[in-house]
Write a structure and sequence with these properties.
By secondary structure, the chain is of the alpha+beta class. The strands form six sheets. Strands 10-6-1-16-15 form a five-stranded antiparallel beta sheet. A five-stranded antiparallel beta sheet has the order 7-2-14-17-18. Strands 3-4 form a two-stranded antiparallel ribbon. The chain contains 23 helices and 18 strands. Helices cover about 50% and strands about 10% of the residues. Helix 12 links the parallel strand 12 and strand 13. It has four domains: about 160 residues, no CATH class; about 210 residues, no CATH class; about 45 residues; about 80 residues, no CATH class.
């Protein structure tokens, strides 16, 4: 006769309660580990493809259902098929199984699959170790304080899960497990701090894999076409944080110079390719004294580019440890390699300085070229302007700016699409665009008028953080402007956007960002305050933790006579310090301690409360004799409670057949309420 199949039952006891049968205990321990796994994966969700996150949560939910229902885990054939599907899906997404992005996706999905074969204690430990490794991969994307906080929370639960596996005979409550794990992590802090200070710092980021070291980073690029900078205008990602030594300049004068472009193919601007007439090193002439210089300290976030963003006009090359900074003919500050790690430098700028007056007629030809067969209406208008009036460069610049002011141009983040003749369509048809449209059209018009000109991209403006008194430059501050060459002043900045949207320059933000700031100052001022406080905390984290690079480590340890470049000396110092710290921790934690009986601990507290009124217990007195002696000193209600406490104490000491846990809890409550 075929046995009827047992229907699956939802086990309520899996959520807590007393220690039941062994399989109930295993379910509770597995459920606790599942929570730790979830906390380990959550920091990666924002950086994974949607299908990858969904795949992990499907596996996670499946395993969770098996815990509650009590069904068997899937067989080996099912797991092998799922593993093959995971590998195929990752390869289809990234076209490789190597590298940062593909490796993390594989790790997350295989972690979900590993949950399907947790049968022995070894499997549980493997899951915990995979989670620890996954937490490290979170720093591929962010090394901020929020990632560190998420890591510590997940690590606390993982350590608590490891402790859970050691409690084989007695089930420890969850708060007590977390308390034990917290103590272990606190004991590890001195060792971690010593390794942080002493361990040799790498010269580059550990996470810089060759193929995708700079993937997923936004910012300025080595070309400019309509719409590229507008795409950055909605991003709140931080580019750099700047602290000024003295009074900061006005926001309208905060221009942070990035790449410059001189070659135009009708749609895309690219860096100039110099021919035989290579421009000389740009000359800088100061129109103000050294006392008028703006001195500041900038901390740039990692980026895929090599441009050191400096305030115009930089009068000296920033000193950056370990990197060679060059000045290009178009006055860009370029590092010898991509800025893949956080960069901190001290800058000096003269806002009224003149640059490039030493250009010759031959080198200026690099900034006059236009592609043939494009924008005929713009060329026709330029020819008409040359024939009509003053052809001096200042007069032509002023006429162009005045035309932009008067001819109903619109500044917008969502301009219409442009066709072949981008400048013609923008100037005469749509008349709506973002800063790159205005700067591109202005430079084309100037070149058509015979004026050397180029496009400059970077960032304009900043947001002040009053909490820590520094300024924040975000991707939404991305901007493009123009430079024209004048014989009297060299390369001179002209910002055509200011003719159409002067508030963009004066406030240093796009209209969309201004609307968000305006609402923040209204009913949601608390949200802006919270955001700035969090950014101030992040800034401090960057300065004191992430900015501790190789040069700062060498400078710090040199004060103590330690040469960290000598690996033998460094290894000896690290071993000695770790030995001292481990010895100190061992002295504080490994001394023999006899655990005190919880029943005696409660009765001792009862006796201490009586001793406070002058009724101390003699060493030879039993509990009953003690109660008989002090009974006359108590009020009737306290006397009754004292009798109950002594009776409960005797019961716990001598009645071995009773349920100890409930009676002990009853004794604790009575002692807490006893106030003689």
């Amino acid at each position: 006769m075929k046995k009827p199949r047992r229907a699956s039952r939802l086990s309520i006891r899996v959520l807590g309660g007393r220690l039941g049968p062994a399989w109930e205990r295993d379910r509770r321990d597995t459920l606790f580990l599942m929570g730790a796994v979830l906390l380990s994966v959550l920091p990666q969700v924002a950086y994974l493809p949607l299908w990858c996150s969904a795949g992990f949560f499907i596996l996670f939910t499946w395993r969770l259902g098996l815990i509650f229902s009590g069904h068997a885990l899937p067989g080996a054939a099912s797991r092998l098929a799922a593993a093959a599907a995971i590998v195929g899906a990752v390869f289809a997404q990234y076209h490789t199984l190597l590298g940062r992005e593909a490796g993390v996706a594989l790790l997350v999905l295989f972690l979900g699959l590993k949950l399907m074969e947790m049968r022995a204690r070894r499997d549980l430990f493997v899951v915990i170790f995979l989670c620890c490794f996954l937490l490290l991969t979170g720093y591929f994307h962010s090394q901020g304080i929020m990632m560190a906080a998420a890591t510590m929370i997940a690590l606390l639960t993982l350590v608590a899960s490891m402790l859970t596996m050691q409690f084989r005979h007695e089930e420890i409550p969850v708060p007590q497990r977390l308390r034990y794990a917290s103590v272990l992590l606190l004991q590890a802090i001195p060792v971690a701090a010593a390794l942080f200070v002493l361990f040799p710092r790498p010269s580059g980021p550990l996470w810089g894999l060759p193929d995708d070291a700079y993937g997923g980073r936004t910012g300025l690029s080595d070309s400019m076409s309509p719409g590229e900078i507008a795409n950055l205008a909605e991003s709140e990602e931080v580019v750099m944080r700047v602290g000024f030594e003295e009074q900061p300049p006005q926001v309208s004068r905060m221009y942070w110079r990035g790449p410059s472009f001189g070659e135009f193919d009708g749609r895309v601007w690219r860096p100039s390719r110099y021919g035989s007439s290579l421009p000389p090193q740009p000359e800088v002439r100061l129109r103000a004294g050294p006392a008028d210089a703006v001195r500041y300290t900038a901390t740039m976030e990692p980026s895929a580019g090599r441009w050191v963003l400096a305030m115009e006009t930089a009068t000296q090359v920033p000193v950056v440890d370990g990197r060679r900074i060059m000045i290009s003919p178009s006055f860009e500050l370029i590092a010898s390699e991509p800025l893949a790690e956080r960069l901190r430098y001290v800058g000096v700028a003269q806002l009224d300085a003149q640059i490039g007056r030493n250009e010759s007629r031959a080198t200026l030809q690099n900034w006059l070229g236009l592609p043939a067969g494009f924008n005929p209406r713009t060329l026709e208008m330029a020819a008409r302007w040359r024939a009509e009036g003053d052809t001096s460069v200042p007069a032509l610049v002023e006429r162009a700016m005045d035309w932009l002011r008067r001819d109903r141009f619109t500044y917008t983040l969502t301009p219409p699409l442009l066709g072949r003749h981008t400048v013609d369509e923008f100037l005469f048809d749509t008349k709506a665009g973002f800063c790159e449209h205005f700067s591109s059209a202005f430079v084309v018009l100037m070149r058509a008028l015979g004026v050397p000109a180029r496009v400059v991209t970077g960032y304009q403006g900043a947001e002040r953080n009053e909490v820590d008194d520094y300024w924040i430059v975000r991707q939404s501050n991305a901007h493009a402007w123009a430079e024209v060459w004048m014989e009297a002043s060299g390369w001179t900045r002209v910002d055509p956007t200011s003719a159409v949207a002067p508030e963009r320059i004066e406030r240093g933000a796009t209209r969309a960002q201004q609307r968000r700031t305006s609402s923040a100052f209204g009913s949601e001022a608390w949200l802006r305050s919270w955001r700035l406080n969090l950014d101030a905390l992040t800034h401090s984290w960057n300065q004191w933790v992430l900015a501790y690079d190789r040069s700062r480590q060498q400078s710090l340890l040199a004060r103590f006579g330690i040469d960290i470049t000598d690996w033998r000396e460094a290894a000896g110092v690290i071993a000695g310090v770790l030995g001292l710290l481990l010895g100190a921790v061992a002295l504080g934690t490994l001394r023999p301690r006899m655990p005190k009986d919880p029943v005696e601990r409660q009765f001792d507290e009862f006796c201490q409360r009586l001793a406070a009124i002058g009724a101390e217990r003699f060493p030879y007195e039993t509990a009953n004799n003690y109660l008989y002696r002090i009974d006359r000193l108590l009020d009737p209600d306290q006397s009754e409670l004292a009798h109950d406490i002594v009776a409960t104490y005797n019961r716990l000491r001598y009645d071995l057949g009773s349920s100890q846990r409930d009676i002990l809890e009853q004794l604790k409550r009575m002692v807490r309420s006893f106030k003689p």
